[in-house]
Amino acid sequence: MMSDRILITGAAGFIGSNLVDKLLEEGRYVLGIDNLEPFYDRAIKEKNISNALTNDNFLFRTGDIRDSVFLNKCISEFCPDVIVHLAAKAGVRRSILDPQSYFDVNLTGTLNLLEAMRQNLVGKLIFASSSSVYGNNKKIPFSESDSVDYPVSPYAASKKAGELLCHTYHHLFGFNIFCLRFFTVYGPRQRPDLAINKFTTAMLRGAPVTLFGDGSTSRDYTYIDDILQGILASIKNLSGFEIFNLGESSAITLNDLVALIEKITMLKAERIIKPFQDGDVNQTYADISKAKKLLGYNPVTDIETGLRNYFDWFKSAYLTAI
Question: Where do the domains of the chain lie, and which CATH numbers do they carry?
Fold first, then answer.
């Protein structure tokens, strides 16, 4: 049975705002919190939740997960049945330049949230983890039972550490927690710093696209609607402690991705090739058999369909600004 009252951290971001809209469509009561940090234009986040703010079932609070007083106040006043913890400092490459702030937000912030839950007797959490925890795992596809002891960026290490914290609170206090390892999520409202958004914007402007490496690296791109399906199934089935991969279980190389965007936009990309960057992984590919079995997870959006949906949204949202 789906819980009625859900608190979402990072509610104004890409995944968070889409989840807010989906839960409101289902008649749930939602409290969204977000610090609206200027990692990218604050106006984008404000636009993401503009429709939700017109819904009487939605409350929004601006605040930081590093602020324990703020978190305690939100949880004690809203009394959520479940918390979906999406707030994080994102970006593999940037985490190498500023590892301290990444751990401050992603680990200390998560600890603050778990403590606020404990103090307010809330025991159900969905934790957003990442495929980056697998590092350069040679075994394909990546399975939840694989070792994740060799992250290659501070961001990945912070997500692995977050999973460990979640298990600790499950063990000590009986929290029901699912850690969801997202595989390269894309779709409407995707962050402007991510590849598909950057490539699309550049090509529409007639600017070159920058590729790192020889274009052979590959990613398991997961469409936002399929991620939402996995989150909703996790909320419905939340019991005990589990880790799940949420991906499409299909990978595409960087070169093929650019070629597909060219096909969809009917534009030719001028490519600038730069060296492979520290912190990036060679490939990601999700084994989703566990999520299929225990959650009924069933991703249905292939990469071409998802990119066409994304481009349709992009044209309506941004084309006048390009």
Answer: 5-187+221-249+285-300 (3.40.50.720)
Is it true that the peptide bond before 188 is cis, omega within 30 degrees of 0?
no
Q: What mean pLDDT is reported for the chain?
A: 95
Q: How far is CA 46 from CA 53, 197, 226, in A?
A: 10, 18, 24
Q: Which of 29, 134, 155, 169 is catalytic?
A: 155
**Site of tokens 């534009």:** 267
Contact 43, 192 (CB under 8 A): no
SS3 79: coil
155 labelled catalytic: yes
What CA–CA distances, in Å, run from 76 to 72, 118, 125, 264, 281?
Answer: 6, 11, 16, 48, 41
Nearest to 162 by CA among 174, 146, 185, 180: 180
Q: What is the pLDDT of residues 249-259, one digit of tens each?
A: 999 999 999 99
pLDDT exceeds 80 at position 322:
no
CB distance 165 to 110 below 8 Å: yes
According to the model, what pLDDT value does residue 319 have? 65
Using the 8-state DSSP alphabet, how is residue 206 labeled?
A: T
Q: Are strands 209-212 and 241-246 parallel, antiparallel or unpaired?
A: unpaired
